[in-house]
Every structure is written in structure tokens, then in C-alpha cells.
Amino acid sequence: MAVVGPSGAGKDSLLAHARAMLQDDPQVRFVRRCITRPGDAGGEEHVPLSNDEFARRRACGDFALHWESHGLGYGIGREIDNWLAQGCMVVYNGSRAHLPVARQDYPQLRVVAVTARPETLVQRLAQRCRESAADIAERIRQQPPLPADLPMVEVGNDADLASASAAFLQALHSHRNLNR
């Protein structure tokens, strides 16, 4: 299950809540991504890698999925293949632009698209203090479209986190039931 959406849509918050709610379910596995960014950069908990280490792991085939976005490398470890073989639902924070490749490698891929209005995204990205106003505007302008041919549920996250979290958990459960 790929969870996608623009930066600032609240994917990390929704994933953290779902991870806490489903922590005792052995059939749901949440992926910790490898990212070429420092571990203390904020946002999601991830495995920080240097560019060289990322390239080495990619060349060795350590990643089931990998992509680059906004100057960073992202990798999903091969452990997901074992989890999928065990019948687990695997949930990862993905990339909209990478979905066609991910679907090619994993034909049963399902997607939860987390959305928010542009003004919400601008406000949230500005609060992170990682990018200039011009960089934020460019990031919002460059949002790739979502592929139309994927099984997808959209979760809006403009209001309160509790409502969005409930909708997100419902989306996970609905996708999970389709896989049975």
C-alpha cells in the first residue's frame, strides 16, 4: 500500500497515528524508508544514508523500490518482499511520480492519496522552515498528477487530524479487505 501526496499534506502524521493504532496487528507492516537526509532533519523517522551509501545499496539490489525527489534519494528495503509473501499488508510512504514503476513491480499495489488544499500545503511547509517561500511555491507547482489506472482512495487532510486519521484508517482497512 503506497501512501502518497504532496509535502505538507500530513502523510507522516497519518502514518504515525495508523502505526500506533495497528502496532499489535502482525499482518500490517509499516516501512521505515532509507533517505539521503540527516536523521535529525525532522519529519518521519527514517534510516539516514549518505549519497554514497544509498548508491551502494541501490547497486547491490538492497532496495525493492527506490526513487529520487527534490534532491533526495528514497529507498524501500527488500524486506517488503518477505512481508508480502507472508500475506501482510505493507504500508509505505511513496512517491506519486514513482507509482507507475511501483505498480509494474508490484501489480497488486493499492494507493491512499492524502490531499490538502494549496493554501494548507503552503502554511504547513512554511512552518517546517526547511525551504524558502520560492522553493515552496515551486514544490507545489511541480506536483505530478496521480495515475488514473490505480486502485486508489483519497483522504483529505485540511481539517482536524482526528477526522483525517479516522478516514485514513478506514482507507487502509478497505484496501486490506480487497486483498483477502
Taking all Cα atoms into account, the compactness measure Rg is 16 Å
Global mean pLDDT: 90
Strand order of the largest sheet: 2-7-1-8-9
Shape, per Cα inertia axes = globular
Treating each run of at least 4 consecutive H or I residues as one helix, how many helices?
7
The CATH class assignment is Alpha Beta
| SSE string, helices as H and strands as E | EHEEEHEEHEHEHHEH
Q: Going by CATH, what is the homologous superfamily?
A: P-loop containing nucleotide triphosphate hydrolases
Largest sheet data: 5 strands, parallel
What does it look like?
- There is one protein chain.
- This protein is an alpha/beta fold.
- The protein has one domain: Rossmann fold (3-Layer(aba) Sandwich).
- The chain is 40% helix and 21% strand.
- It has seven helices and nine strands; from the N terminus they run βαβββαββαβαβααβα.
- The strands form two sheets. Strands 2-7-1-8-9 form a five-stranded parallel beta sheet, with helices on both faces.
- The longest helix has 18 residues.
Using brief descriptors, characterize the structure shown.
180 residues; alpha/beta; five-stranded parallel beta sheet; four-stranded mixed beta sheet; 21% strand
